């Protein structure tokens, strides 16, 4: 006997991934297309429909009962629309209606991508067993999501947990979002690299100026590279401490490319957290690297769709 | 026929208030003592027991079925203990056990005072009808609480919503809590007054250097007084925007003595909110003055106890 499956979609600025996922979070069928992010909205949607087409052609499709979408944000779960910053052709795009039509009328659950990875880490990753958790992605941007009282807290529009755009430096540098001193403006990969370059760090013969190159330099002891990661860690710590102080979480799980720097990030982050998480009810906050890999978005979208159905 | 009543306690650094509250939030019996805040823990507890004694002596006491306590924090609802910053004799003090004993074994619900005023504003005040709200007190300190998804979000230890101690200025002035640039360190009444004095404002013949005096000077157009309130408003805006961006709220309700300054605070606060609440899902955040008066703590403690019983 075949059990119910979820059709999961993970929609980002680089790729559109799809999968059929079972109730244990196992991926049975996969499909993927590059995101034609600079094209018009209908062209982007056609790529989504191609992914869905591969899933519906799979023999297991008949068992799919619900669709879960994790999308680059902002999303509007109440309206069923998405407006991903990196996909300018989609502004208030009615993704839920279009996906419902493409799947023969299945119910569709939409959440932001930060919420999706949080659902995945809570279901099967580093936040498993934690009733109150913040999960983050530190990469080109900084995103996140919350588990509160044992349940995913997506918020009315599916955007809760946007820790990258809280200000921890109210007089700080202008962020593309319009605010100043956002966590992302200080701690994202491109900002770690920018700060190192501004302070005199220079790349090796390969010319690599990515955050990964800065991390390698920091591991080798370059003081400018170390300082840039320390500043990122300080901003992340202030943001994580703020989150804990506001909603009470007991673990912060951090994934994404910048988290791949390992101790270069995590050691100063844990130290800085002691400076900002000062009240007694947040002093024992743990920090852990994410455990789910690149499938986190798909598995999390499936988890959210399953939770909706319950 | 008499309906069930709640015995409510509102415990602060200045006074210990008690009441018998009915299911409509009406206060039927009151009692109050000054808090002997500098005395040892048992002396403080005796004042609480005197308040309870007046309530148990009332003819309505027989209808009391549950006790709700809102206490200056931090509290630990899971352990049943309190450690109010301004009552040094109470550190990990087993308030729940002691109140249960003093009330003949009634069930006792404990929450922080910020959570209590939030429960009151959500039940009968400015947050009524809002499923996602932040309620704040801006006074000697800055406290708060959250309503998420239609329910009070107290957090596992009853301390959620501590917006006064999130950092909005990660390199800023040291806060007594140990962190830097906390909202309270910039926006509380004493800090508004301190900043005005440091920048050259001088009191009138009455020597009044309170935040209320600064507010009066600001209303009269004194530029230093205006600037001190604007800075407080900026910090509050950054903190409120951070909260909205993290958990999705649609209203921030602000009470307490400093909120009594009215437009001197609210006008720059609404302006600054546009600078920090930039993502689409937080742009329509409303700000409103609190509606509950000095009974908010009692009414909210009663609301929380009633909600627990449901």
UniProtKB/TrEMBL annotation, chains A, B:
InterPro entries: ATPase_NBD, ROK, ROK_cs. PROSITE patterns: ROK. It comes from the Bacteria. Belongs to the ROK (NagC/XylR) family. This is ROK family protein.
